[in-house]
Amino acid sequence: MRKRSLLAATVAAALAALAALAGLAGSPAFADTPWPTKPVRILFGFPAASATDVVARAVGQKLSEKWGQPVVIDNKPGAGGNLGSELAARAPADGYTIFFGTVANAISTTLYTKLNYDYLKDFQPLTLVTITPLVLVANPSVPANNVKELVEYARANPGKLNFGSGGVGTSNHLAGEMFKAETRTDLLHVAYKGTPAAYNDMFSGQIGLMFDNIVAVMPHVKSSRLKPLAVTSLKRVDALPEVPTAAESGLPGFEAVSWIGALVPAGTPKPVADKIYNDMVAVLRLPELQKQLAATGAIVVGNTPEQFAAWNRSEIAKWSKAIKESGAKLD
How far is residue 294's CA from residue 227's CA, in Å, rounded to a whole number? Predict the structure, then answer.
């Protein structure tokens, strides 16, 4: 009997120790375990000099300073951003790969009939990093200096105006389709393989209009090669304070913004995910970083994982509606 009592006491003590360790794993002390101990990469599906790249490099530099480890920017462009997304989804869930998802992920969820990853299931959302409004820009030859004049001209000349995009199903294509539906105008969509080619035709006057990310648009607006008619956020942006919103211009509720959010592969340990989230939000609150990103037209957010998860769901629903109305579909 005494042996049984000793055995029972030993088992009870072992279980208690395991329970204590389990509790410790989720405690702040455990969360302070050294991490990272090697370089961390920020991976996304767009090339160098893209809006995502500009934001990632600014944020990555501050995180590197905070962590004392290199933060490597890993550009994996291709398939409308889906190549990088798939690689990130398959990365080890150890915190050493941070994925910068974008509006393209919300669009791809509906646009593509088949994807090799599931944006909502394969990633754990951390925070919405930035929102970057689109800007409706026009070639200087277009006889309109605001949305009201543009709509009046387009209605009087159906099919005469065209708008360019970086490809079928991109945010600048779908924003144009949303604009057509809201204004009941007949605009011809011209798809290019990327916005650089579209800009070349915009400058020459072959394309009259385009919606594009404010980060990419700003240099062309500053040089007066293009004229801005409206921004697509619900509030005006500091980088273009004189340019009204589409909502102000007679399209109440019109919102079509680009955005960048930080995620990690699903299954990343909570203490590590929490540390990345807390440190990233701390970096996003730095005045010098906010000033740097504001100069490009980006609006810094830094919300909670729950808020970012809700944002993802609402964005998928919004763009799904635009995709179905446009009839766009890709394999």
Answer: 20
Q: Are residues 148 and 126 in the same domain?
A: no
Instruction: Name the one residue in this structure whose structure tokens are 């007949």.
Output: 186
First to last CA, the chain: 71
DSSP letters, 15-66, are HHHHHHHHHHHTSHHHHTS---SS-EEEEESS-TTSHHHHHHHHHHHHHHHH
The amino acid at 86: E
Report the CATH number that the domain containing residue 208 is assigned in CATH.
3.40.190.10
The tally of domains found in the chain comes to 2
Q: What angle do CA 74, 90, 41 make, to 5 degrees?
A: 25
Of the candidates 32, 117, 34, the residue with the CA atom closest to the CA atom of residue 83: 117
Q: Please, what's the largest Cα pairwise distance for the chain? A: 99
Structural domain that includes position 293: 35-131+258-326
Per-residue DSSP letter, 228:
E
In terms of domains, do 121 and 267 share one?
Answer: yes
Alpha helices in the chain (DSSP H): 2-25, 28-31, 51-67, 82-89, 103-111, 147-156, 171-183, 195-204, 214-222, 270-284, 287-294, 305-326
Tell me, yes or no, whether 122 lies in a domain: yes
> What is the rounded average pLDDT for all residues in the chain?
89
SS3 call for 189: strand
Q: Report which of 231, 225, 193, 197 is spatially closest to residue 212, judged by C-alpha positions.
A: 231
pTM of the model: 0.82
209-267 pLDDT, tens digit each: 999 989 889 999 999 999 999 999 999 998 899 999 999 999 999 999 999 999 999 99
Integer Cα distance of 60 and 276 in angstroms: 12
Phi then psi for residue 166, to 5 deg, are: -80, 5
Q: Tell whether 1 is covered by a domain.
A: no
